[in-house]
UniProtKB/TrEMBL annotation:
Protein name per UniProt: Adenylate kinase
Annotated binding of ATP, by residue: G10, A11, G12, K13, G14, T15, R123, V132, Y133, G203
Entry keyword annotation includes Kinase: yes
EC number in record: 2.7.4.3
Source organism of this protein record: Cellvibrio zantedeschiae
Entry annotated with the keyword NADP: no
């Protein structure tokens, strides 16, 4: 099964991706996590991406498309994968189509902008695994520490309010048009058109997980 989770920054893509990945045994492919790993490792890609990410902009389509094409060739993707944070521009979605990568489901997790700002200020992450927590809504068992490794949690550099607002603007301008893109694909009767579903992303993590599972089952 091949799934795209679409949604604004902070909509809960990473949180839900972790749960779906466990349930269906398919890997989560988060371009954000891959880029953060590259920044941390100081690779040439990381050096190019660092400033753009900290400012809340988008890394170039060419770099992202190359990164994803290489990733999906790995053997753990043989039974499918879950894209989290990709595609996020029309050229990225077109590149997938042109490469013949068919997608079964596009699921949009819908959360209003005001809610996003509050969510992201309380987010804490385990850098090595990408596991995500929230100080109030999804708290770790031990404050400030990852549930599985016990290692310290950190705040992302792009979670400051000003940068979050910039990321939201970028989302509305460049990523939200993908809704129309995928809906048109289905309306045109394209045989590779995925099933498009929008779910309400406000509510408990568990209630959203249930909505996602009912779409995918
Ligand atoms: P990326 O890492 O993809 O960030 P994003 O899309 O901005 O999304 P987030 O990770 O912020 O949010 P999320 O939806 O995963 O929410 P989460 O589950 O963490 O990208 C980062 C940067 O990399 C981009 O800005 C760009 O520069 C670059 N980049 C990445 N991909 C790219 C691409 N394809 N092209 C170009 N550039 C790219 O949840 C958020 C918080 O809310 C957490 O604290 C969580 O615990 C909490 N929460 C989750 N669910 C709920 C709930 N139901 N109720 C209350 N709180 C909740
Ligand atoms: Zn994420």
């Amino acid at each position: 099964m091949r799934v795209i989770l679409l949604g604004a920054p902070g909509a809960g893509k990473g949180t839900q991706a972790q749960l779906i990945m466990e349930k269906f045994g398919i890997p989560q492919i988060s371009t954000g996590d891959m880029l953060r790993a590259a920044v941390k490792a100081g690779t040439p890609l990381g050096l190019q991406a660092k400033g753009i990410m900290e400012a809340g902009g988008l890394v170039s389509d060419d770099l992202i498309i190359a990164l994803v094409k290489e990733r999906i060739l790995q053997s753990d993707c043989n039974n499918g994968f879950l894209f989290d944070g990709f595609p996020r521009t029309i050229p990225q979605a077109e590149a997938l189509l042109e490469a013949g990568v068919s997608i079964d489901h596009v699921i949009e997790i819908d959360v209003a902008d005001e809610e996003i700002v509050a969510r992201l200020s309380g987010r804490r992450v385990h850098e090595a695994s990408g596991r995500v927590y929230h100080i109030l809504h999804n708290a770790p068992k031990v404050e400030g520490h990852d549930d599985i490794t016990g290692e310290p949690l950190v705040q992302r550099l792009d979670d400051h309010e000003e940068t979050v607002r910039k990321r939201l603007n970028v989302y509305h301008a460049q990523t939200k048009p993908l809704v129309g893109f995928y809906q048109n694909l289905a309306a045109e009767g394209n045989k590779n058109a995925p099933v498009y579903t929008r779910i309400n992303g406000v509510g408990s993590v568990d209630s959203i997980r249930k909505q996602l599972l009912s779409v995918l089952s």
